Amino acid sequence: MTIIGTSVPRKEAPNKVTGRARYTDDINVPGTLNAVIVPANKAHAKIVSMETEAAKNVPGVKAVITGQDVSVLCGDVTEDRPPLARDKVRYSGEPVALVVARDEMAAHRAASLVKVHWQDLPVVNTIRDALRDNAPLVHEKNGEYAVATPPVYPKKRSNIADEANVTKGDADQGMKNSDVKVHVRVSLPQIDHAAMEPRIAKAEILADGRVLLHASTQAPFEVQKLIAKYFKLNPGQVIVTAPLVGGAFGGKAAVQLEILAYLASKAVGGQMVRIVNAREGDMSTSPLGMGLEAEVTLGATRDGHLQAAQMRFYMDIGAYTDSAPRIARAIAAQCTGPYRIANVHTDVFCVYTNHTYTTAFRGFGHMPMTFAIERAMDELAHTLHMDPLDLREMNAIRPNDVTPTKARLTRSNLGDLPQCIEKMRPLIDWNGGKVQSVGAHRVRVQGVAAFWKTSSSPPNAVSGALVTMNSDGSVNLSTGAVEFGPGTKTTAAQILAEKLRIPLDRVYVHEDVNTQVDPEHWKTVASLSTYMVGRAVVDAANDLIGQLKSLAAAVLRCSPDDLDYGEEKIFVRDDPSISIKFSDLALGYKYKEGDSIGGQLMGRGRFIIRHLNLLDEETGHGRPGPAWTVGIQAVEVEYDEETHQYRILKAATVLDAGRVINPAVAAGQVMGGMNMGLGVASREGVHYDAQGQFLNQQFRSYKVMRMGEQPQQYLVEFVENPQLDSPFGARPIGEHAVLAIGAALANALSRAADVSLNTLPITPEQIWRERGARL
Amino acid sequence: MMPNPLHYYRPDTITEARDLFEQLQRANQRPTYYGGGTEILTRSRLNDGDFDAVIDLKGIPELHVHEQDGSRLRFGSVLRLTELADRDLWPFLTATVDRIADHTTRGQITLGGNLFSTLPYKEALLPFLVSDSADLTVATPDGVKQRRLADVFDEELRLDPGDFLISVTVDGQEAKALAFKSFKMTRQDWIDYPLVTIGTARREDGSIRAAFSGWSSFPFTSSRVNKILSNTQKPPEERAREAVAAMPFHAVDDIHGSSEYRQFVTQYTLARMLKELEAQS
Predict the structure, then answer these.
(1) Domain residue extents for chain B
(2) Whole-prediction pTM value?
(3) Cβ–Cβ of A768/B188 closer than 8 Å?
(4) ipTM score of the complex?
(5) Per the omega criterion (within 30 degrees of 0), is the bond before A404 cis?
(6) What's the CATH class of domain B178-280?
(7) A643 with B263: Cβ contact below 8 A
(8) Fold of domain B7-59
């Protein structure tokens, strides 16, 4: 079979391109009520009192809920977030009340009539504000909250929500042994996920007590568990469906609107309630991607061998913790980038501010982390007068090395960075990073940066697959992974088709995820779907093949061991003319006389991650993921020395994909990643004013890369060194192309402008400023 | 999602529209005129806007006029920006309006909507601001009146409440004789609000005028700046530097760019425009 490694269209593509694909808001139940959030217009203030009478009197309004009505505290790790603010608000945009009404318009009108009397509190508007002595506290009860998923180490009476450390070797000694040291400080703003489909949830509570939730989520099974936990229900009572999701990028792994939808439904006797973010609320009320300030010191020998690294990362997590402690550990565990460094000391701090709270963002902290380490690597190359690619190749981490958390690396669990680098040289036509003049005030420069990433998943993450047969011998595939764009379901179908040796169009995928009928999949995050779902699918395929053979063996009067399969038939290996079609076995075999045996055949498969563990509190040692994907990225820019404007001419990625399952989709995923990473590096970022107000909550002012502003060329190549425990050797590739491309841009422009560009986004103004702001 | 109910009217004549406005006011409604709707709709999403009735002017034929009317170029106030660009009656106006928003939005935005926008930019004003002959045709309670743009413009076009713009005209000879450049400078993106948009024109007598949008919270031209720019004894760079120093207002400081950076961008852009203008002659 040749399904693996073949470019096939995604299963849902025809429906998507004709507008027939169904998303959460396309599921309409007559009589659905609408809930609208009343957002805080203060970043940090006590709620003295609230007036809801006027809102309640708007015709069509069914209920107005405030924080006084809800006592539960939520949080993925630390339970520090009330679904509706109680006593005080901690960011502008935070939900303070929820209006439920017959129609959306009445709900909006009523929401605008809810009046809050505030008492202003001093705003914690920057990481520096937050860490000052006697800084105002975002959470007076920091350190006293219940912890849902350890580890987390909050510091009482401070704005430090968590701290993670990693120590390997002796960093101080390593620095002493170094001939050269470079020191880099980087600063990155919070960013928005900017998914095309804003977040949405619908909930109803049936008379029998079951809760039905429809949501645009990456984590339907997490929604099920958390709703059950927060509202003291049995998990089986909570049924979550996740139809196609219109982009997620980590932002839909957080659980927020689902909780509000449940509260709203409960307030109106269980009727179906819909809550949907407008774009403005999707940015300022729902969680963002974190901001970061970091300091990196690298020590190396004169010939460029890295000796030591010391780093401090301060994450602007905003007002609530959400998944920040997990991200902090991911940063700590991969802090060196894909380099062999014997002596490392790294501290990562999660810092509360009065900014919109944050959650996972494509790359799970590795994108900002990579920016820091890769800027430092380029500074080192500059200091040593070395070719930046040579420096990276010389220090690339290799099998038998250990990671900063002392996880052992093998040929299987680590991709081959040197091979990627060798392939990048001709791809980008590498010139060593030289600044080339191409006309008056105009120069062309290339920049490179490397990345690695592992999953940072919990050590007990599970996945499953169910395969049922249709009467014609075709199969249905049911998995728990949500489809939000990268072709997850299609990849699973390819793996099943390959294993069953049937054409891809004989596999029908269950597009939605329904927690009641689909097998559990931890969360559709961390680029793990191919690995985890794929393993479960292989298991299910083997189970089904066993069932087919065993039923065929009875019919063909032989041992199952004598049988092989292909072309939708089971046949005797040494005499293929003795065979029986899948279709004659699918729903049981019927003898000529009419009596039948077997029943419907269904394969079941399951998978649980193995050999992972939580990082040790003291040393940070442990194994954070099953494997590390590596790659190298490059850009070529043309820079105007007079105006500081620039154009990105080329952007390139070479990554070790292990085995490419669907080349066109994989290349698309990588190009999309580069586009996103370049957008973040060149224009994106949340602006807060001095009072902590979110200033750019629309796309007219929060700029993402538009069609036409992208580089002239996107170049993508793969190398294939298999990950042995993954289906067909495929390595995770979903997130990775965002990771280092922004650093590559900064490296190119830093050379072009002859100044260190360590603050994102890199706008012409930023370059002008760094160059001394001369008129 | 527009949270508040909005009454929509679409009169067929100038008189109907003008009367309707007063009727609505008498009935204690808060009417506003409606062109392409891009601002009214987006502001309504944010509950921002003091109106509960809109009078759509696009049904009135006189507001669609788009022609050389005798010696004058006449532009109806409900012409879409894309219509202006496609017809290209006055290339200076085309060059300026064709950089507003994106193509889809320009297919909605009207000339009048841009000139009376609540945003600070109103770039379509710039070519008219550097002309001597720009006139407005205005619907008033006493019928249709001509007003000199110079008499009506004071940081914005000031019409009496309830009056509306029918068309803008400019002398065809003057328009033709202007050598022009129109540059829009943004923070980073092709599609964004301007740090500064500059319309410069070189007149037959060799003098130069410039009008600016984005620098301040309203568009403007300055005789002092124009005088500096017109002093061709000095090199363009020097004139640009002096012009920026002589600007009558402080440069805006906002999320698109700092005040100092606006000065920097304005200076190099002006220098470049002067060079290009003078190379043409």
Answers:
(1) 7-59, 62-174, 178-280
(2) 0.97
(3) no
(4) 0.95
(5) no
(6) alpha beta
(7) no
(8) 3.30.43
